Amino acid sequence: MIKINYFFIYLFVLINFISCDKSTKENKNHLNLDNVVTAQSDVDSLKIQEYNQWSYAGETSPEHWSELGENDCDGNRQSPINIPTTETVKDSVELLNINNFHYSPKTKINSVVNNGHSILYNFNEGDYLEYNGNKYKLAQFHFHAPAEHLVDGVRYPLEIHMVHITPEKKILVLSFMAKEGAESEAFKELESFLPLKKKQEKVADFSYDFSDHINKDFKYYHYVGSLTTPPCTEGVDWFIMQEPIILSEKQVNLMEQSMPHDNYRPVQPLNGRIVTSN
After folding, report:
1. Pick the residue with more confidence: 33 or 142?
2. Is 222 a catalytic residue?
3. Which stretches does DSSP call E strand in the chain?
4. Model-level pTM?
């Protein structure tokens, strides 16, 4: 009888050990998956995201992002930044020009998603740009209202991030500021999918030529920073267009109403980084 009791005790301990070990692995995998999903929220062409451990307010606001698991949010090369235009350094060689862009008017947007943090327009494969010997595919573009980057301390009402990525996961973001003025005809089809509720997705099937927004003699600011959402991955090439896009007040308001209030991260210290311009 004693032997049987010992056997059941051993069996009970073994089952609990296996269960705890499995639970630990599942939690670890869940955390890793969350990190991947969060990284994808600013990188890949996405469906609706289930990662809700960060936000723009309260206990999970930007000042607490570095506490939410393994990430780079307390790194030294973070984004966004304030761009001091009088202190930028001229590029000795133009890093990006109109010949680097390969945007086709036939490339289609396949879905529009409110992932709880922003509005994302997801592209089929087709559009890409070439930079530093690499091919960066355009995955998606999304919005922040008001803008995340400041220019000489000025915050625009809206900022558009066009996220590009290589097969090796190198990331390049092309950023456009938007200011209020005349109505934009090019944005009318984009706004036809709005408003979107949180976690809502609409299937899309229309072509959008973003090259319409890129001037042949465009001017940019460039620096190396990070994703502006967790996990705040560093090593991201940022190209911020100096010439803003013009949208009507109604168009800006419609975008604002579809997203969390003030979905922007505060500016981060430069920490000795150099901002260049062409």
Report:
1. 142
2. no
3. 82-83, 89-90, 101-102, 108-114, 119-123, 128-131, 134-144, 150-151, 158-165, 171-180, 201-207, 220-226, 234-241, 245-247, 276-277
4. 0.81
